[in-house]
Amino acid sequence: MKKLDGKVAIVTGAGKGIGREAALAIAAKGATVAAVARTLADLDETVKMIKDNGGSAISLSHDLTVGAEVQAMVGEIMNKYGKIDILVNNAGGYPSEIYKNIEHQAIKLWDWTEEQWDQIIKTNVRIPFLCMKEVLPVMIGQRSGKVVSVSSRMGRIASQMGAYAVAKGAIITMTKTAAIQTQEYGIQVNAVSPGIVDTPGQRVYNHSVGQDGVQMGSAADVANAILYLLCDAPDVMTGQSLDLFTTV
After folding, report:
1. Count of Cβ atoms closer than 10 Å to residue 39 Cβ
2. Tens-binned pLDDT, residue by residue, of the chain (248 aa)
3. Does any domain span residue 155?
4. What is the domain extent for residue 58?
5. 87 in Cβ contact with 10 (< 8 Å)
6. Which of 6, 37, 171, 188 could form a disulfide with 238 if both were Cys (CB 3.0 to 4.6 A apart)?
7. Would you give the distance in Å from CA 182 to the centre of its chain?
8. Other CB atoms within 10 A of residue 63 CB
9. How do strand 86-89 and strand 145-150 relate by DSSP bridges?
10. Does residue 3 sit within a domain?
């Protein structure tokens, strides 16, 4: 696998779960990682882990649902490093307040409130849109860059997860659109679509809906798929999604 020496990488949602594993893996290949999320304590722990392993990283606490915060994040990174080579759009999720009252079943499409629907779309679609909106022009100016967004198998196949499945499906379409529009500038835009992944948030959800024993894949495996797209995928591979854990 190729190294990422000298590269500067943004990893959103890097405080835990898939984001943390991706940040650790990317840093281990030699890139400097800007670990971004809202909770600074979690980010600082990720950065400490990277530095303890001899890597380079910084913590940036921002609410990425706010355009001005995303602009500020990109500005900080550009002021410090002068470039952005990699963007990993991982931030997202399924807020616990939505499923805490579910009794072992998904919310039916017609039972979603407008507020719940908007929250899921804001968390899972708005963030990668805003990040690409600010980062892609930088990469276009460089005439190089790689973007990997974390979607889900629920966005690739029929699912009962309502707004979450719709949002993750939107990430796939956004990936393909960005790939078409940036290919001429030497930029690759791809996605990974894992099934159920063993993360702290997923375990809370599983318990809430009575699925504690469900089979799950590992966040480290998702990170390895992200590394493949960043390091070894052919230059012509863009606008694609790698499906993972198809049996769960």
Report:
1. 12
2. 569 999 999 999 999 999 999 999 999 999 999 999 999 999 999 999 999 999 999 999 999 999 999 999 999 999 999 999 999 999 998 666 555 555 545 677 888 889 989 999 999 999 999 999 999 999 999 999 999 999 998 777 766 667 888 999 999 999 999 999 999 999 999 999 988 765 655 555 544 444 555 565 788 999 999 999 999 999 999 999 999 975 44
3. yes
4. 8-244
5. yes
6. 188
7. 19
8. 12
9. parallel
10. no
In single-letter form, the type of residue at position 74 comes to: V
* Rounded Cα gap, residues 143 and 201, in angstroms: 37
- What is the chain's length? 248
Residue 131 near residue 10, CB atoms below 8 Å: yes
CA distances for 240 relative to 55, 126, 170, 173, angstroms: 29, 20, 13, 10
Q: Annotated catalytic residue: which of 81, 94, 99, 164? A: 164
pTM (two decimals): 0.89
User: What per-residue confidence (pLDDT) applies to 206?
Assistant: 44
Is there a domain that residue 129 lies in?
yes
Rounded Cα–Cα distance for residues 30 and 23 (Å): 11
Q: Calculate the CA dihedral of residues 128, 43, 46, 230 and round it to 10 degrees.
A: 20
Structure letter (DSSP) for residue 104: S
- Distance separating alpha carbons of residues 83 and 55, to the nearest angstrom: 18
Active site residue 99: no
In a domain, 2, yes or no: no
| Total of domains in the chain | 1
Backbone angles phi, psi at 56, to 5 degrees: -120, 130
